[in-house]
Amino acid sequence: xxxxxxxxxxxxxxxxxxxxxxxxxxxxxxxxxxxxxxxxxxxxxxxxxxxxxxxxxxxxxxxxxxxxxxxxxxxxxxxxxxxxxxxxxxxxxxxxxxxxxxxxxxxxxxxxxxxxxxxxxxxxxxxxxxxxxxxxxxxxxxxxxxxxxxxxxxxxxxxxxxxxxxxxxxxxxxxxxxxxxxxxxxxxxxxxxxxxxxxxxxxxxxxxxxxxxxxxxxxxxxxxxxxxxxxxxxxxxxxxxxxxxxxxxxxxxxxxxxxxxxxxxxxxxxxxxxxxxxxxxxxxxxxxxxxxxxxxxxxxxxxxxxxxxxxxxxxxxxxxxxxxxxxxxxxxxxx
Length: 335
Hints:
Elements: E1 7-10, H1 21-29, E2 34-38, H2 54-59, E3 64-67, H3 81-89, E4 93-96, H4 106-115, E5 119-121, E6 140-146, H5 153-166, E7 170-174, H6 178-184, H7 198-205, E8 213-217, H8 229-239, E9 243-249, E10 254-255, E11 258-262, H9 266-277, E12 285-292, H10 298-312, E13 316-317, H11 319-322, H12 325-334
Parallel strand pairs: 1-2, 1-3, 3-4, 4-5, 6-8, 6-9, 7-8, 9-12, 12-13
Antiparallel strand pairs: 10-11
């Protein structure tokens, strides 16, 4: 999947800032690919971009209208369709991460064909894939893994890409979720891949490369989350990583949405992920920890990171608060 950039970010009529997390993620990580935002009456959320109409966005080079918000149920509100139609008629592609598919709207499909543009349903794109082979391939790969889902694997991956580039390394973020795909402009939505093909999808996403090139593969789920362990294992085997970065939320008491499932210890999680990775990677190592400390004071956060770092002998940091340069430096030194 390759989505033409730059983007016009559509915020609909949302009033909850969290509902615009996809658009916000794109703006944070790829501001140069955002020509502006477009909203409907009643919208109270803004990314701080200039609010422009479709004609102005097209004149400024926008190639794709991104539906950058989510709602309960992931449906496509009928009153958003006028904006989508107008974008198509202006010659813009449309990308959506909603469960409701753009291609299930016959009028939009017909308009897209008439005006020579594409509809990208990020959650539903299923490229032709092979099963994983485990065959050794050149290049270097880092995979973000986690003690749980929703602990910052995408943010960590993007932050690591930026930090590695800052110190002169050739590094590329490889997206496996819908927001990451829109940030990168390319990728494979792993939750839309049939289980047998997950490892093969990740092999295709991070193919053989130059010996000094790094792929940072965005992780999903956790080996210890009963709902998502399968996708996590497929990612680990397909990525064939030389390095893992463990993501964790400080103080999280149980697995997300599963109060009956206690949080795994860092030690057990690290050991399990490293062991699983040895199926396709002979010398996989732990590069460090990326820890969400947002519920704690800076003093508590620094003390916890220092404690984790001392226990495991690798950097531990909150990428949002403290950056991730220590992990990037370790990879440059030992990679």
